[in-house]
Amino acid sequence: MADWEAIYQEHSAGILQYLMMLTRNREEAEDLLQETFMRAMQSRSFVNDISKIRSWMMTIARNLFLDTVRKRRKREKLHVDSEDFDILEAVPDPAPAPDTLVAAGDFKIRLESVLNTMGENYRTAFMLGIVQQYSYKEIGDITGWSESMVKSNIFRARKKVASEMAEFRR
Amino acid sequence: MKTCEEYEMNLSAMIDGELHGDELTETIKHLGECPECMKTLGIYQAMQEEINRHYQPDAVPDNLWGKINPGKDTAKPKSEHHGGKTVIPMPPWLTGIISAAAAIILILISSFILRDTYIFPLQESKIPLLTSTGSSGMTEERFVNFTRELLSADPVYHRKMYLILSALYNEGSMTELQDPSESDQGLQPEFQPGRVDSTGRAWY
Lengths: 170, 204
Fold this sequence. Notes:
The complex is a heterodimer of chains A (170) and B (204).
Chain A: H1 4-23, H2 26-42, H3 50-83, H4 87-90, H5 98-102, H6 107-115, H7 120-131, H8 136-143, H9 147-164
Helix pairs in contact in A: 1-2, 1-3, 1-7, 2-3, 3-8, 7-9, 8-9
Chain B: H1 4-15, H2 21-33, H3 35-54, H4 64-68, E1 80-82, E2 85-87, H5 92-119, H6 140-153, H7 155-171, H8 173-176
Helix pairs in contact in B: 1-2, 1-3, 2-3, 6-7
């Protein structure tokens, strides 16, 4: 029987970090983390191979996030249709403008602001490949991308961040 | 021939430890010939070091595990692994409570079992429980009441007790437990279930 508390202690912080980057909202990320573990604990297809558990958990987390986005978009579309109003343009980006953060010199905040300008695929590639250093094979398992696509997405994310954060280079 | 843009993607994979074989050899060779790509590799490496240094995951809230796994004490001590098994240390206060409860239960059970034999042996009769009828042993009335009590308390278990008692009674072995000094107290009546005794009470 799986020691879920040990799995939680080992992997929850990494999953939460990924979910926070995706959602840009700590509360929502914590809800999704909770849901991820509840789904995993109820799942009958538990992965017995300990080396694959973190990929499996991350896959559940990512799928839950994508489901949430899909549902939200559906709701928003209904709202737009009924009011003839483009709600997507009306919602401000919660991330602060990059210019205001350069002075602060806070690498982490600046990095997050750069990530927030990128699409979900690049953010996932960046978080899993560069921050959490999953193998390309694991990222492929989580996202369903081919290995060459993983390589390409990580490269583009890395290049974008490197160019946007030139001021942090020594 | 590959462009620098194509080699750049290999540089990214190289930093991630995902470049192997001929591609790795070719890229290293190109780096020796292209200062621009060498500079890019340095930028990527420096950025990776900054990320490793500054972008660590935040702590997960303490109460989240309790929400995921309700019914568990969220403040419980972390499990320890011994020989592949997970052992959760028991807090000292809980050990004390369990010990005290076990002692109380043991005392209560002992008192119940021994009350007639040892604790209150001489209040109604001068000799222990399984004695013959008569002034110094268990009276017929007490025997009937005792058997009835046992039967009503637990029909399965005390049915066995009833059979044992009746067998002892019929065989006269209960007499053997009688105080020798009062052994001339006459013969016991034969035990017959369903028989109505001289006082008009029925046997059970």
